[in-house]
Design the sequence.
């Protein structure tokens, strides 16, 4: 079974703006170009997986349900803006200095530890060497590097990171593979670095839940079921399972407008596609031209042999002695055989041409 690729993303100040601890879904605001950027990455074959520390739960500022509500609102805005879909939200509510006792501890899912990435790799059968991690903090880069992912650090001075996402002095500082100013710039790097496999990655990954929910509740009449997660102190943090939303793959939502950076990203992806197509067409044209020329020469030779045998049977053999090395009947049969051979080769050439055009 072929292993999949993914782009891991931190949530706060990577996809949405956050100047503190965000537990109110009404305060969710996407960063410029986030929707179109994530939709574009998913269309070229990457799973979109969010991995975030949510120590506000451990600090007693809000609960797990509030984190889910924020994630749900973020997903809704992404779908509305550009038809973007997040495959899974992983978050860690633990903290070593938690006010809530059940969430006190340095859990393996808390970045810079790579526990969330390990779990996602198991849930989605990921090849982590082909995955990327995008985040705005050193802890994000450390988690991605620990699992062999290529990493991109967002460093945009226009975003106020606040105290909630500031790096701790004891956190490891790992140099990222790239440093950029925006999520759109990060996506351009992923497209550029992975351009040699874009053509094989055009199949959009199917939407699926990361794990089976422990319990389900119906949000309302006609609404999809959402997972209701309770986090014991000794168990790993939850993965928020997202409902299937086929409409999210259909493109931009009505009335949505894409920022300038989003248009630039789409142009970059389209340019790579055109370059790959031109290179492929150039290679295929040379090969098929040579093959067609060789086979057509064979067809002409077969037709010439058929003509020679036909002329020999119709004219030359009528005036020769019976001691000639072959008679009229054999000449006629020879002409028919050469003609059939030419027809078979010509049909084969046409069939191969049609198959090539179909591909």
Sequence:
């Amino acid at each position: 079974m072929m292993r999949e690729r993914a782009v891991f993303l931190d949530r706060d100040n990577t996809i949405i703006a956050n100047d503190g601890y965000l537990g109110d879904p009404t305060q969710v605001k996407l960063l410029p170009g986030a929707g179109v950027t994530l939709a574009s990455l998913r269309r070229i074959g990457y799973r979109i997986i969010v991995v975030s520390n949510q120590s506000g739960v451990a600090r007693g500022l809000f609960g797990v349900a509030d984190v889910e509500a924020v994630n749900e609102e973020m997903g809704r805005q992404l779908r509305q803006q550009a038809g973007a879909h997040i495959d899974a939200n992983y978050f860690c509510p633990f903290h070593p200095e938690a006010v809530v006792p059940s969430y006190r501890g340095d859990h393996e899912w808390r970045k810079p530890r790579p526990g969330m990435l390990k779990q996602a790799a198991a849930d989605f059968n990921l090849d982590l060497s082909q995955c990327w991690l995008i985040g705005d903090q050193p802890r994000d880069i450390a988690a991605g590097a620990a699992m062999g992912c290529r990493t991109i650090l967002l460093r945009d001075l226009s975003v106020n990171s606040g105290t909630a996402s500031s790096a701790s002095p004891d956190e490891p500082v790992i140099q990222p593979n790239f440093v950029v100013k925006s999520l759109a710039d990060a996506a351009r790097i992923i497209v550029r670095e992975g351009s040699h496999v874009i053509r094989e990655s055009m199949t959009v990954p199917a939407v699926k839940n990361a794990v089976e929910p422990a319990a389900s509740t119906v949000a309302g009449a006609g609404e999809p079921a959402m997972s209701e997660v309770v986090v014991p102190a000794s168990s790993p943090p939850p993965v928020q399972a997202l409902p299937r939303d086929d409409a999210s793959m259909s493109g931009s939502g009505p009335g949505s407008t894409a920022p300038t950076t989003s248009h630039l990203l789409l142009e970059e992806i389209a340019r790579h596609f055109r370059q790959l197509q031109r290179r492929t067409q150039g290679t295929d044209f040379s090969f098929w031209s040579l093959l067609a020329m060789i086979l057509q020469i064979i067809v002409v030779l077969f037709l010439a042999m058929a003509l020679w045998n036909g002329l020999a049977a119709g004219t030359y053999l009528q005036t020769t002695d019976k001691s000639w090395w072959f008679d009229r009947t054999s000449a006629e049969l020879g002409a028919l055989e050469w003609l059939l051979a030419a027809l078979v080769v010509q049909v084969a050439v046409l069939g191969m041409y049609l198959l090539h055009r179909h591909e």
The CA atoms of residues 288 and 353 lie 8 Å apart. The chain is about 40% helix and 10% strand. The first helix runs from residue 34 to 43.
